Structures are given as structure tokens and as C-alpha cells.
Amino acid sequence: MAGIGKFFVEVGSKFDKKGMDKARAAINGIAKAALAMGAVFAGAMAYATKKAIDLEETTSKFNVVFRGVTKDANAMAAVLVKSYGVSTQESKMFLSGMQDLLVPMGMNRKAAAAMANEVVKLSVDVGSFNNMPTEQVMRDIQSAFNGMPLPMRKYGVNITQNRIQQEALNMGLIKTGEELTVITKAQAVFSLIQKDSSDAQGDFIRTSEGLANQLKIVKARFDDLVVGVGVKFLPIVKDYVKLINDNVVPRIKEWIDESGNIETVIKKVVAIVKFVTVATFAFAKTIGFAIDAVNVANETFTSWGMRINQAKMALSGNIGMAKLFGKMAVFHSKRAKEGFDKLT
Asked: Could you say which of 218, 228, 274, 322 would form a disulfide bridge with 289 (CB–CB 3.0 to 4.6 Å)?
């Protein structure tokens, strides 16, 4: 006890009470700032990782639907990113979505890829011309390909069955009296869309210096930047998830099977959390009482108005409380560790 008291007296002699209060406030401020920064950082990393996962999933589909023409498809995606204000993930999502529609209709992959590329470019231009999201225009064109052309009317594109039939004849896709196939109909529909939207074609590049399209470009570049960060964290996340799947989940299941009562398992988990919480609280209180002890020691040697007996009692009390909460912190930390050891 004498050694601890001497320590606090020596520390207290170097600071006045106001200084210690400022120190406490500064430490609290740093702690809060650290927590806030940690939360922001964690949130940012989670967002970046999610974006990277989205790109990984999109790329997986992209490679499947463009198999055999992947090199050409990647070149198309690169041009879209460079000149059409879309992110890497968006370019691959738009292209693969259209490819996945055209190939099952009966179009070969190379021809489908070329058409998918033209559809995406036109969607960007029509969206720019009409101040609509590219994704929305893509959905409306896909609806037209599937026999639901009404959504295209808001862009000035009027598709009727008679026009489709005539356009297919004009393009040499069918002969008089022949029925349209799914793929020839889609080709005729797209030709009509191109004709009716001629004013919109090339609009994105023409107006790329405007604020609306500059914002689209900035967003796309930022998305690619975020994905680049997230890609760095993917291996860590994958290892963590694998650890959970391979070790933690099976161990919890075994634990449940062994206990035979889910309520018992929940109680054990709650108890562990309780030990951790109490231990954290106790450590904080230990620091708090230690600072109070320093304040008392300082008061003793800097203020003649405090009686020596009162000072000794206050100092002993704060040091005693610090020791008490310190023991409590250690005890609950050990209990928490024991609980985790049993769980894992």
C-alpha cells in the first residue's frame, strides 16, 4: 500500500487538479474519437469488401456467359468504362445481363456479344438524353425484347407488331409469309429502337462535360476505386468466413448437441458476454479511481485547506477502490476466457 501511495503522490506532485481533469477529459475525448474513427473505418471496409464481392460475382457470371469470346467481351467492357461513364462492375453486369437474354433465344455467343455491346451503349445514350438511369433503360429494352414494348414509349420509341414484321422483312430476316422467331423478332425490335432513338445516339459523349454526366463519371470512378480497396480485403474476409464455417459453426453445433438444450447454450453465451462487459467496466473504473487518487494526493500537497487525516482517508479509499475494481476486472476477464475456451 505504501508503495502505491508513494507512486500516486509523486505523480500528483507534477500536476495540479485542473491539469488532471483536463487529462481525464482528453483521454475520454481520444477514446470517443478512436471509437468513432474505428466505426467509420470498419463501415468503409465493409462497404468496400461488399463492392469487391459484387464485382467477383458479376465477373464469374460474365466469364460464363461470354465463354469463347471472353477476350472480345473484356475489350467491350473496357471501352464502356473509359468512354461511357460506367464502372467496371456495371459494364460487366449490363453486358452479361443482355448476353444471358440473347443466347437462350438462339443467337450464337459472338453475335450476341456484339449486339449486347450495342444495347448497352445505346442504353447509356438514351439514359443521358432523357435523364434516366442506364439500368432503367436496359430493363425497358429487355422488356421490349420479351414482347413488352410499352415502357419504350417514354423514350419516343413506338413499337407495334406491324412495324416489327415490316422491319424484319426490310432487314431480310424473314420472307413474306414467314413467321418471326424469337431471335429475329428481337433483332427487328432493336433495329426499330435504334431508328426511333437516333437523336439520342452519341448523347453521352456529346454532353460528357455537363454536370449530370460528370457526376456519373465520378461515381463510376469512385466505385472502381472502392472495389480496388475491397479486393485487398477479400482474402482476409474469405479466410475469416472459412474459419467460421469450418470451426466455429461445427463447434457450436456440437456444443448444442452435447448440452441438449438450446436455452442452456444461450445462457452460456450471455454469461460470456456479461463477463466481458463487466471486465471492461471494471477496468474503466480502475483507471477512474486511480486518477481520483492522484487528484487527492495532489490536493494533499498543494492545498493547506485539506486536513491530513481527511486526505489520508480519501487517498486510501480511492486506491482501495482502484484495487477492488482491478481485481474484479481480472476475475471477469478470466471467466470470459474460460467461457470462450469452452466454446472454441
From this structure: 322
